[in-house]
Design goal:
heterodimer, A: about 280 residues, mainly alpha, two-stranded antiparallel ribbon, about 5% strand, B: about 100 residues, flat, DUF1634 domain-containing protein (chain B), transmembrane helix (chain B), DUF1634 (chain B)
Chain lengths: ~280, ~100
């Protein structure tokens, strides 16, 4: 591959990693449309490169949260039994499914994301409600010791919480893993609300645990694509490196940018990508 | 706690090693050295295997703190990751439809 193409791919990776860090996502929703639109990749090849890069963002971001003890390692491991099962099915389906189907599915996912970004940009701040996070555990939660606490710096105290609805959480995690591997994305968009709204996990702990899980889920999909021979090695190097650089940069400027503005720009970009994906599919 | 520490070390090592291999591979690629693809492939494999190593690290950590249910949980995760590799190779051997 010529150096110029490598450089362009590095830039795509940096942008994806940067936005990914700002928004707490893997960045696959940027990588896949860019590879298919600007570099003439087929969607399956783009998905395979993307999922490897997602592993990179997750590892880089996750280790920080684990160190700060915000991550619930036991809960993450428990839900990973379902996300990895989903990832195996998803990657298998992606290899077998017709490309047009994947383009359209990607388009629909992008529209959904775009709309949710545009709609939620006004009300960012109704998240931490500390008093409601302790309740009665279910049996699985108690046996595995899933309930936990984390140090919340903004609140200046340790937040205790009880994990509930473990079975529903497992089912939802299976679907998250399936979509992740099939479309080459991290799937944090699904995992965070599942933990936060369904399983009673505070937002910060949910984000950290989701980041932690994405690595294992994405690598399960990536392993299948790698063994199958779908991963384009020449493209992986610049994109994955770019993602690592962008993610590191993104985490350090996140607090200086206005969340509403980021969401507006991101939402509009996604809408444009969605349009392109659907055009390719039909 | 042991679990967090083991996991953290595995993640950090994998990230640094793969980033270095990617850089070397790209550098060689610019000068048209054939070995570049093998170096990048090695980086990719390390990157993708890293989460698996952290699952294995967790199995040991859970075992040492006698959390047997969690050992089983981590083994299930490891099983699906290995299954994924097997299915990938299997799909490779049959013609794509």
């Amino acid at each position: 591959m010529d150096p110029f193409t490598s450089l362009l791919m590095l830039i795509v990776g940096i942008i994806a990693g940067f936005f990914g860090a700002l928004l707490g996502i893997g960045g696959g929703v940027i990588i896949i449309p860019c590879l298919t639109m600007f570099f003439n990749f087929g969607i399956k090849e783009a998905i395979a490169v993307s999922i490897v890069s997602v592993v990179a963002t997750s590892i880089a971001g996750a280790s920080r949260y684990v160190e700060q003890r915000i991550t619930n390692v036991r809960l993450g491991m428990f839900l990973e039994t379902a996300t990895t099962a989903g990832a195996v099915s998803g990657a298998f389906l992606a290899v077998k499914a017709p490309s047009s189907f994947l383009y359209i599915l990607m388009g629909i996912l992008l529209i959904y994301l775009s709309v949710s970004q545009l709609l939620t940009r006004k009300k960012e701040e109704e998240k931490l409600r500390n008093d409601l996070f302790i309740t009665k555990e279910d049996e699985i939660s108690r046996k595995l010791g899933l309930s936990n606490k984390y140090p919340d710096i903004a609140e200046g105290k340790e937040v205790n919480y009880t994990v509930i609805r473990t079975k529903s959480g497992l089912i939802a995690s299976y679907l998250a893993g399936l979509i992740s591997a099939m479309l080459g994305i991290g799937g944090g968009i699904i995992k965070v609300p599942v933990m936060n709204q369904l399983m009673n996990v505070p937002m910060k702990a949910a984000v950290a645990t989701s980041k932690f899980m994405i690595g294992v889920t994405a690598s399960t999909g990536a392993l299948l694509y790698l063994a199958y021979g779908l991963v384009n090695t020449e493209a992986v190097a610049p994109v994955a490196m770019g993602v690592m650089i962008g993610a590191t940069a993104g985490t350090s400027v996140m607090n200086k940018m206005k969340a509403g503005f980021i969401k507006l720009i991101f939402g509009l970009i996604l809408l444009y990508f969605a349009y392109n994906m659907i055009i390719k599919g039909v | 706690m042991q679990v967090e520490r083991a996991v953290y070390l595995a993640l950090t090592f994998g990230t640094i090693a793969s980033f270095l291999l990617f850089s070397i591979g790209l550098f060689l690629d610019i000068f048209g050295v054939k070995a570049s693809l093998a170096v990048i492939l090695a980086g990719t494999v390390i990157l993708v295997i890293t989460p698996m190593i952290r699952v294995i690290a967790a199995i040991f950590a859970f075992a040492s703190s006698r959390e047997m249910y969690n050992v089983v949980v981590a083994f299930i995760v490891l099983f699906f990751m290995l299954l994924s590799i097997l299915i990938g190779f299997f799909l490779r051997t049959i013609p794509s439809g």
